[in-house]
Design brief:
This protein is an alpha+beta fold and 153 residues long. The chain has helices at 31-37, 49-57, 65-75, 84-97, 123-145, and strands spanning 22-23, 63-64, 100-103, 118-121. A four-stranded antiparallel β-sheet has the order 1-3-4-2.
């Protein structure tokens, strides 16, 4: 029996999302095939709550993991505290789904720790967050129509 080693270059870019500050990871395939296999935002809905909170945390600026945890806790008044395990499992899945990219842009060295990884939302991640927001708004409208919600939030 003969052993074969197949080497595949690890360079791919998200369609329509090529920027010098991003690290692009994946396998090298044809763009036509990639376009066919890219999911639609609606195909990822409903989002797990942790995923939606992470997308909101990185909506306006790149953040490292601990800063994401702090943002979610602050935005929810401490009601949601992401554990490190939940955060990094979610981030790994979100990177694979194309919702986030790891950013090469870093703060000044005196304000940074070289071990930190910074994450940025992608246009696809923004589209998924908008789709989830529409879904949640529709649920609230239906709950109001049934008398489960009164007044303003």
């Amino acid at each position: 029996m003969m052993n074969c080693l197949l080497t595949i270059p690890l360079t791919v870019r998200l369609i329509g999302y090529d920027h010098p500050n991003y690290i692009h990871i994946g396998y090298n395939g044809s763009e036509a095939r990639m376009k066919e296999t890219l999911p639609t935002p609606e195909s990822l809905i409903p989002l797990p709550p942790a995923t939606f909170h992470i997308l909101m945390a990185v909506a306006y600026e790149d953040r490292h993991g601990y800063a994401i945890i702090q943002d979610v806790a602050a935005r929810t008044g401490g009601e949601i505290k992401l554990s490190a395990g939940t955060l990094y499992r979610s981030i790994q899945r979100m990177l694979e789904q194309g919702l986030l990219v790891e950013s090469r842009h870093r703060p000044a060295p005196e304000d940074d720790d070289e071990r930190r990884r910074y994450y940025r939302i992608t246009p696809f991640g923004e589209a998924v967050a908008r789709a989830e927001t529409r879904r949640l708004a529709q649920l609230v409208r239906m709950a109001k129509a049934r008398g489960f919600v009164t007044g303003r939030a």
